[in-house]
Amino acid sequence: xxxxxxxxxxxxWVRDTKxxxxxxxxxPTMGFLHEGHLSLVKKAKAENDKVVMSIxxxxxxxxxxxxxxxxxxxxxxxxxxxxxAGTDVIFAPSVEEMYPRESQIQLTAxxxxxxxxxxxxxxxxxxxxxxxxxxxxxxxxDLAYFGQKDAQxxxxxxxxxxxxxxxxxxxxxxxxxxxxxxxxxxxxxYLSGAERNEAPHLKKALEMGKELVLKGQDPIEPMxxxxxxxxxxxxxxxxxxxxxxxxxxxxxxxxLALAVKFEKARLIDNIIFHPKGN
Length: 278
Description:
alpha/beta, Rossmann fold, Pantoate--beta-alanine Ligase, Chain: A,domain 2, 6-stranded parallel β-sheet, 3-stranded antiparallel β-sheet, 10 helices, 9 strands, globular
């Protein structure tokens, strides 16, 4: 497995790989890998000749009071896990390498960014679009892989690729969970022991809410009551929207999503389903 840290190294590798006629799958990450990331690598490995994983904690998507400086980082551990899953190349640039100067062109997410996490994290998805656009151009991937746990991010990136005719396709990866139902996340390490015991109730609340939707009932109040009774966290939001448009009028699939703030971790989770149970 190759470890590349500069744009020029990556571009040279991509040029040689394309010359050889090999397809490329891209798995963008911020590192501190877990089974969710590795499942995307395995999916990419099955569908491409070569797999590139980016490991880059992107400052452009963190707000001034968010956890950029303390976001967990362990590149050596990540390298071992990535190689074991079948990654061919890790691209792990510095901030200065990715952003050598202040950007003169700004990308702005549309209405999909005005709900869920985006409603209280202004500019977050603009930063996501910035980094994935650079990665898409640099890697020239045929396919790029994103997990459904970050469903809003996934929907926005799919819109980017479709609206601007990127010569690639996005592959969705299912949310990978612990045995007790908690969605895998790099931020789970911030949970205290008591909070970790409470955290599986997020998935249970979503399952309860889905059943209410299938019965034609509004799930928000019952889910709020359930989470209040079973966790010490503060509910940031619970929303039922169309997916992937993220509008309030559900036309095809629905997403039931929530975010709960614990003392040192903000957890998100969701379920995507057909509202008529199909």
